[in-house]
Amino acid sequence: MDSPYDVLGLDADADDTEIEQAYRRRVKESHPDRGGSAAEFQRVRKAYEAVLSGTAAPPADATAEDDATATAGGNTASSPTAADSAANTDDRDSQEHSADSAGDRPPTPTRVEYLNYDVVADHQWEFDDPALFERASDADLDPDDYGMFLAEPGETLLEAAEERGFAWPFACRGGACANCAVAVVEGELDSTVDNVLTDDLVDRGFRLSCIGRPVSETLQVVYNVKHLPGLDDLRLPADRFERARADD
Ligand code: FES
């Protein structure tokens, strides 16, 4: 079976930006609407999640190189040393620090972990359960329902989800309804314009994904919460906007 790195065409030392670019390219190539297939599309998504979560096996050529080095009796620079790990940790710490101090929007992508509210309801999980995302991670859910992706700085959460092949709910795309609402469990989703959500809903962690931009390094959201009490009343019929766009 191909390594997730091979599926995405990545080197073992690819950084987050390279991972993101490779994923976008492969999503387009493998999408059923663009000549790919559903199976290949899912394979690409699973590979992306495995690379992001750090569970992916290294690419085949990296394994071959390691084997060749070991056969030649060399051990130079093939495996990271404790000092390398410490240095990498220091680098990450310093990057995280500079991201924190750089202002509202981090210069690096936000790692978004998402969960479909339908799954929460089906499993009768408690919405405010602190272990909610751990349960989701252990439940072998469909990639449409649970997973991770990287959102680029400046992207709205809805744009980021759509760029990566997901079909999350929306209607107006302008902060005027609650169709695109998400519940932020951890992290921050910044909205710079007024919207329809009441103070109470905002205090409870609800945000609009069509105008909300991730501003934390990690973000956990439950999407598709539009039917929850308080949000359902703010929904608009999505087809009205689809008709308006078709008439443009
Ligand atoms: S789609 Fe209407 S507020 Fe986001």
TrEMBL record:
InterPro entries: 2Fe-2S_ferredoxin-like_sf, 2Fe-2S_ferredoxin-type, 2Fe2S_fd_BS, 2Fe2S_Ferredoxin, Beta-grasp_dom_sf, DnaJ_domain, J_dom_sf. Gene3D superfamilies: 3.10.20.30, DnaJ domain. CDD domains: DnaJ, fer2. SUPFAM superfamilies: 2Fe-2S ferredoxin-like (SSF54292), Chaperone J-domain (SSF46565). Residues 52-111 are annotated as: Disordered. Residues 53-62, 69-88 have a biased composition (Low complexity). NCBIfam families: Frdxn_Halo. Belongs to the 2Fe2S plant-type ferredoxin family. This is Ferredoxin Fer. It comes from Halobaculum halobium.
